[in-house]
Amino acid sequence: MKTSSRITYSIGDLAKEFDITTRSIRFYEDQGLIHPTRKGQTRIYNQRDKVRLKLILRGKRLGFSLAETGRLFELYDADKSSVTQLVTIMELISQKRADLTQQLDDIQAVLVELDGLEANCKYTLAKIDK
Predict the structure, then answer these.
(1) In the 8-state DSSP scheme, what is residue 34?
(2) What is the pLDDT of residue 84?
(3) DSSP readout, 54-79?
(4) Per-residue pLDDT for the chain (130 aa), expressed as one digit of tens each?
(5) What are the structural domain ranges in the chain?
(6) For residue 7, what is the enclosing H or E element?
(7) Is 9 exposed, middle or buried (0-12, 13-18, 19+ CB in 10 A)?
(8) Contact 54, 61 (CB under 8 A)
């Protein structure tokens, strides 16, 4: 869509581009993460909404919650490229890294347990077959 030399998008356009449902986009709107304008019942998204949607989806892939993403948006809106924003981002990254490292350790511990259980099952089966 093009209106008065500004590019806009319909909810369907964005859903198709990002391969998500329109329901997801409406949910992000309900969470206050994107703010389309309205023309009657029709939502009209601008470039800022599109960029935010891309960042929301990237944040989700990296394991950031919607609340964390919203917090970053608030900081950015308040003071673009501020020290506070950058420090907060670094803190979130550090916390996410620590969480993922812990999850990795937990997964490795479970794999060791599964290996032991599997070996025990094989040993027991071998005894039964004899």
Answers:
(1) -
(2) 79
(3) HHHHHHHHTT--HHHHHHHHHHHHHS
(4) 544 457 999 999 999 999 999 999 999 999 999 999 999 989 999 999 999 999 999 989 888 899 988 888 887 777 766 787 788 888 888 998 999 999 999 999 999 999 999 999 999 999 997 7
(5) 1-64, 79-130
(6) strand 6-9
(7) buried
(8) no
Q: Which amino acid is at 100?
A: L
Task: Give the closest residue to 24 by CA, choosing from 55, 65, 53.
Answer: 53
Supply 129's token pair: 């077959």
**Of 36, 44, 34, residue with least CA distance to 77:** 34
Which fold would CATH assign to domain 1-64? Multidrug-efflux Transporter Regulator; Chain: A; Domain 2 (1.10.1660)
Per-residue tokens: 112: 């060791």
Specify which residues 43 forms β-bridges with.
Answer: 38
Query: What pLDDT was estimated at residue 20?
Result: 97
